[in-house]
Write the structure tokens for this entry.
Amino acid sequence: SGMLPVFLRTHYGEEPAFKKTGTLFTIHNLAYQGVFGDSQFPHLGLPPDLFTHERLEFYGQVNFMKAALLYADRISTVSPRYAEEIQTLEYGCGLEGVLKSRNGHLSGILNGLDTTEWSPETDPFIATHYSKDSLELKAKVKEEFIRAHKLDWDVEAPLIGVVSRLDNMKGLNLLEEIMDYLMHLDLNFVLLGTGEPRYMESFKRIGETYPDKASIHLTFSNEMAHKIEAASDILLMPSRFEPCGTNQLISLRYGTAPVVRSTGGLAYTVKEFDARTLSGNGFTFHEFSSMGLFNAIKRALDIYKDKKQWRALQLNGMNADHSWGASAKQYEGLYRKIKEQAA
């Protein structure tokens, strides 16, 4: 799709049907760019002078995403924070200069959540439904989860969940480093995910070493994801980077407190809980370190002990609107600008 804005300007530039066609290119994850060897460039049928550093050439190769960033009328990405981050050396993946040059045409629009699929009031995968007005029933969902998996766990103990692809982007190396410490605290742990073999082996070991504290599911299961989101008290997302993130939005809707690294969409949607003002909806850490993650978890566990504060935290998350409505209006606004520009 990255080549379409280029083709509209070159191959189809004089076609009446496409003359007033504008383009919006949306970046989900800048790390995946579509980079091919220079031998592929002739197959695109483009003028040779486009294979330059100022155009499609990228360290001797041809880069489809770079092409889109240069030729699209507008560029968007999936959170306002990520739109800022990708213009920096740390997150730009080699394209930060191109993005800076198009700063005036770059927007960040937060992804929405499908609130018909993800709703604790109607979720078909949990036996007991609850809402912000019947939040006490969430404990019953946790009890049903524990009983269904034949786990000898105290339902009063906090349940920490992870639903994630198992790879470096998700910051699971930070969790690896502190798992043995966590397993000696008053909590239980459930993980669902599949991915890199090293992480699968590592969390398999945790499950075997602490069978009375940890339930590890090394697979993909939509049903299990729903059950963990609903049953958990705390959900971990220690991502190295996160363009938008969906699991923290789901957690907020389910009254589950997210513990996240403050990056990308996570920074935009999760705010540190303040016990004094009862504001905020989760727990955050900034430096990409296992100690930062551990301290954020400890803060969450401390607040969990105070039922009044914990209820306020849950309601802050559940009262927020993360449906597609607001995002759709922003996209519509962008489409209108592009249409006016192309007219």
